[in-house]
Amino acid sequence: MLGKKLVTAQKRGETRALCLGLGMVACSMMMYFFIGITIVPFYTKSVWTTETVCKVLKANIKDKVFCPNSKGSEDEEIFPYPCLQVWVNLTASGQEVMLYETEDTLERNPKCSYVPDKMENSKEVKARIETIASNFKKYQTFPCYYDPGGTQTNVILSRLYPAKGLLFAFLWPTLMFTGGCLIIVLVKISQYVSVLSAGQ
Fold it and tell me: Where are the transmembrane segments (predicted)?
């Protein structure tokens, strides 16, 4: 009687462990799919792939410009902010080009090197842009990214999704997938050993 209860408990435990392993594998596949349709396209479409050194030539703050709250939005929510323009000397080619913060900055407003998020306090936005401009004047040389194919003549300060970030995004679903497969394998091994023990 006790042996039957132990066998029943063991089977329940194996079933739960097997469901856990399959659930982890399914969740990891969903995460892979989500990363594949969101992050990977942005990474592959970016043409600023080669890192080089940029030297600041000038960093000026122009008059206030207006920028939509979100690209392609139908509403008329716009906010003014000082337009920071940073021109750098590209070490790779020796050209004088305009610097943008990320790929998204160029799409949102090609006239400005930095586009702040929408804030209610305009003084805070102005102070932040002035701080960024002073930092560029203080640190004259820094790494940047340019387009080796020549499609884009400008450069960006940092990529939205660098290679390290992409690998880090794939790390967690890979660990979950590996853990789920390991649980399934261990359950199958346990079942195989139980069958051999019952046969003996």
Answer: 20-43, 166-187
C-beta of residue 145 within 8 angstroms of C-beta of residue 91: no
At 24, is the pLDDT very low, low, confident or very high (cuts 50, 70, 90)? very high
Same domain, 60 and 80: yes
Q: pLDDT tens across 35-94, in order?
A: 989 888 888 888 898 888 999 998 888 876 665 544 444 444 466 788 899 999 987 677
Is residue 163 exposed (0-12), middle (13-18) or buried (19+ Cβ within 10 Å)?
exposed
Residue 59 forms beta bridges with which residues?
86
Calculate the CA 123 to chain-centre distance: 30
DSSP state of 68: E
> Taking Cα atoms as reference points, which of 47, 61, 66, 59 lies closest to residue 156?
47
Range(s) of the domain holding residue 193: 162-199
Separation CA 41–CA 37 (nearest Å): 7
Q: Domain tally for the chain?
A: 2
**Do 59 and 153 belong together in one domain?**
yes
